[in-house]
Design a protein that fits this description.
The protein is of the alpha+beta class. It folds into 4 domains: 3-120, STAT transcription factor, N-terminal domain (Transcription Factor, Stat-4, Orthogonal Bundle), CATH 1.10.532.10; 134-313, STAT transcription factor, all-alpha domain (Glutathione S-transferase Yfyf (Class Pi), Chain A, domain 2); 324-401 and 416-449, Immunoglobulin-like (Sandwich); 506-669, SH2 domain (SHC Adaptor Protein). Helices cover 50% and strands 14% of the residues. Strands 16-15-14-18-19 form a 5-stranded mixed sheet. Helix 6 packs antiparallel against helix 7 (77-94) and helix 8 crosses helix 16 (485-500). The radius of gyration is 35 Å and the shape is elongated. It is found in: Cytoplasm; Nucleus. Its main location: cytoplasm. One of its GO terms (cellular component) is cytoplasm.
């Protein structure tokens, strides 16, 4: 079943979440019509590879054209209209930036997987629940409402300043007219009456000046309160959501809304600044005893400039954290001498700043690493499809400096994967007489010199971003805090949903909890140490919990991904639990689980019934990536045979737990069907005796466990002859075709 088909079967509350991230950037109509094609492309890789993204965009438009041809034949006028509009939109929006649509589609697919994983959970995880707090949503609406009100107030004050200017011009004209009269004329009753009118007008001017200054003061105060409270909280919440998204959690939307708020506030502050400049201009033309402008204006201008400085400083953010294109799902892990990408955005989007801000990238000041490549670039509004003022560094690479003695410090396999570093960015904004220095930094990154260090480095990234919302605690691992088990399990499920397309259910998480703690515990209050997660070996094993889990993720990704996505691999179940599950099932019922004693191994266990009615269980030696590279796991399940004493070899695997016929579950994943295989020649080639490799185990009468299939292979001609007597030619032909090697 395709991922989109699974999405369509969700409850309405989950469908509403799906609806939120489909818009004109990637219309849902295209997701629906091209579901299978979209899911078969590697959008994650394309999001960091411009050439690949260009090809995918071209192919996407071709797919849309094919759909247009189809619906044209069906004369579906509405769909024809929508597809033409969508095609024009996609080509216009992404023609100059194909990687952006790759990012969008990759994020949509990932978010679908996360929602599917959440739907399979009995309750929403604590981290995700906190991110979807209704109080937070209400605050977002309040911020947008207040920003809009502030903008309107600033515009209304513009009208007041204009009225004040007109009133002062009239006063100035009438006053100068009287001043130009002869002294004898000034003593007339009419002139005296005019002088009284001018005095009244001056009183009105004074009142209006105070009123305008008061309104400006209120606007400044409202902006100050909004920036100090709700807007700051919104920005911190977005940064926290970004942290969580980086380790597999829900996507962190809301940056466009923040940009709108920051931009409107900046525009309002500059508008107030112009109003204060206009008041200064009016002051030079007219002042008097008790004039409020020379008293209040300097303080208000100082406050406006202070708010602009803070607004700009907070608006400079890392939109996309450092990530190697080769490992898009492992951000913040950087390998020396390998390029990484990072994107920054200025949330104040003003046309005057386009191509005027040059950003410089550096690494933390410990002098151990330097950044090579293009590390100075200008921010612009052309690189992003949404027109944001941003810059993308695509050719940066960290290099470790040699020590003073001439040897390479810690470079090599012993580089510490708990040592945190930071990529820093600085720039300067010069606008309307203001010069503002801006600085920001990435979330902490871990440097590695060998890909073998990546699993432990990623564990460090997970633990840091799970445990703290401090964006710059580079000494975190000097004394790493414990994590709540419930939150850790939620993050572990995200690793599976984001990396291999299907999260973990409550039963699978229960097994992981017991493996981590060695007991059945309450999720809510149990605290797990960093050492337990990633440093200490599991009891009786030579590896840690995290190394064991990472090996399973790698196995799924490279060898059994379709079976995992379909939900046919129970995976995380102990030997004791699997026997409880199988004991009352029909003989031949089996389940698939990951090995607890072998790294990156998967095995299957089936239930059988002896002649006396007793139930027995058999588990095959775990298959690792070496064996699975030779033959797909689905083919192994199809062709597996067991020889019980001297009986005819047969496949003991009948039903996938609980009662799914094996071929119904795995049939679509078989690489070849028996009737599609050509019959092998009777004689061996070039004088050799023919040999075949077939997954066969032999179970002795006094053993309940089959020997490893590798103990029986390759088969001698005599054994092969016995098999020819008992197995159909089709089965042997299949084995010959597939060439299973156990080594």
């Amino acid at each position: 079943m395709s991922q989109w088909s699974q999405v369509q079967q969700l409850e309405i509350k989950f469908l509403e979440q799906v609806d939120q991230f489909y818009d004109d950037n990637f219309p849902m109509e295209i997701r629906h019509l091209l579901a299978q094609w979209i899911e078969s492309q590697d959008w994650e890789a394309a999001s960091n590879n411009e050439a690949m993204a260009t090809i995918l965009l071209q192919n996407l438009l071709i797919q849309v054209d094919e759909q247009l041809d189809r619906v044209s034949q069906e004369k579906n006028l509405l769909l024809i209209h929508n597809l033409k509009r969508i095609r024009k939109l996609l080509q216009g929006k992404y023609h100059g930036n194909p990687m952006h649509i790759a990012v969008i589609i990759s994020n949509c697919l990932r978010e679908e997987r996360r929602i599917l994983a959440a739907a399979s959970m009995p309750v929403q995880g604590p981290l995700e629940k906190s991110l979807q707090n209704s109080v937070v949503s209400e605050r977002q609406r309040n911020v947008e409402h207040k920003v809009s009100a502030i903008k309107n107030s600033a515009q209304m004050t513009d009208q007041d300043v204009k009225y004040l200017e007109d009133l002062q011009e009239e006063f100035d004209f009438r006053y100068k007219t009287i001043q130009s009269l002869e002294q004898s004329d000034k003593n007339s009753a009419l002139i005296k009456q005019e002088m009284l009118a001018l005095q009244a007008m001056l009183n009105t001017l004074d009142y209006k000046r105070k009123e305008v200054l008061s309104k400006i003061g209120r606007v400044i105060h409202e902006i100050d309160m909004l920036m100090s409270n709700m807007l700051t909280e919104e920005l911190l919440d977005w940064k926290r959501r970004q942290q969580i998204a980086c380790i597999g959690g829900p996507l962190h939307g809301g940056l466009d809304q923040l940009q709108n708020c920051f931009t409107l506030l900046a525009e309002s502050l500059f508008q107030v600044r112009r109003q204060l400049e206009k008041l200064d201009e009016l002051l030079t033309r007219l002042t008097y005893d008790g004039d409020p402008i020379p008293v209040q204006r300097p303080q208000l201008l100082e406050k406006v400039n202070f708010l602009l400085y803070n607004l700009f400083r907070n608006s400079f953010v890392v939109e996309r954290q450092p990530c190697m294109p080769t490992h898009p799902q492992r951000p913040m892990v950087l390998k020396t001498l390998i390029q990484f990408t990072v994107k920054l955005r200025l949330l104040i989007k003003l046309p005057e700043l386009n191509y005027q801000i040059r950003v410089k990238a550096t690494i933390d000041n410990n002098r151990r690493f330097v950044l090579c490549g293009t590390h100075v670039k200008a921010m612009n509004m052309d690189e992003s499809a949404n027109g944001s003022l941003s810059v993308v560094f695509r050719h940066l690479q960290p290099k470790e400096m040699k020590s003073s003695a001439g040897s390479k410090g810690n470079e090599g396999p012993h580089m510490v994967t708990e040592e945190l570093h930071s990529i820093s960015f600085e720039t300067q904004v010069c606008l309307y007489g203001l010069t503002i220095n801006l600085e920001t930094s990435s979330l902490p990154v871990v440097m590695i010199s060998n890909v073998s260090q990546l699993p432990n480095a990623w564990a460090s990234i997970i633990w840091y971003n799970l445990s703290t919302n401090d964006p710059q605690n580079l000494s975190f691992f000097n004394n790493p805090p414990a994590a709540t088990l419930s939150q850790l399990l939620e993050v572990l499920s995200w690793q599976f949903s984001s990396y291999v397309g299907r999260g973990l259910n409550s039963e699978q998480l229960n097994m992981l909890a017991e493996k981590l703690t060695g007991q059945q515990v309450s999720y809510s209050d149990y605290q797990l140490s960093w050492a337990k997660f990633c440093k200490e070996h599991l009891p009786g094993k030579s590896f840690t919990f995290w190394v064991w889990l990472e090996a399973i993720l790698d196995l799924i990704k490279k060898h059994i991904l379709p079976l995992w996505i379909d939900g046919y691999i129970m995976g995380f179940v102990s030997k004791e639990k699997e026997r409880i599950l199988l004991k009352d099932k029909t003989p031949g019922t089996f389940l698939l689980r990951f090995s607890e004693s072998n790294l990156g191994g998967i095995t299957f266990t089936w239930v059988d019934q002896l002649e006396n009615g007793d139930v027995t269980f058999h588990s095959v030696e775990p298959y690792n990536k070496g064996r699975l590279s030779a033959l797909p796991f689905a083919d192994i399940l199809r062709d597996y045979k067991v020889i019980m004493a001297d009986n005819v070899p047969e496949n003991p695997l009948k039903y996938l737990y609980p009662d799914i016929p094996k071929d119904k579950a795995f049939g679509k994943h078989y690489s070849c069907q028996p009737n599609e295989v050509s019959k092998p020649s009777d004689g061996g080639g070039k004088g050799y005796v023919p040999s075949v490799f077939i997954p066969v185990s032999k179970i002795l009468n006094d053993s309940t466990e089959p020997h490893s299939p590798s103990d029986l292979l390759p088969m001698s001609p005599s054994v092969y002859a016995v098999l020819r007597e008992h197995l159909s030619p089709t089965v042997i032909e299949t084995a010959v075709c597939c060439k299973l090697f156990h080594s």
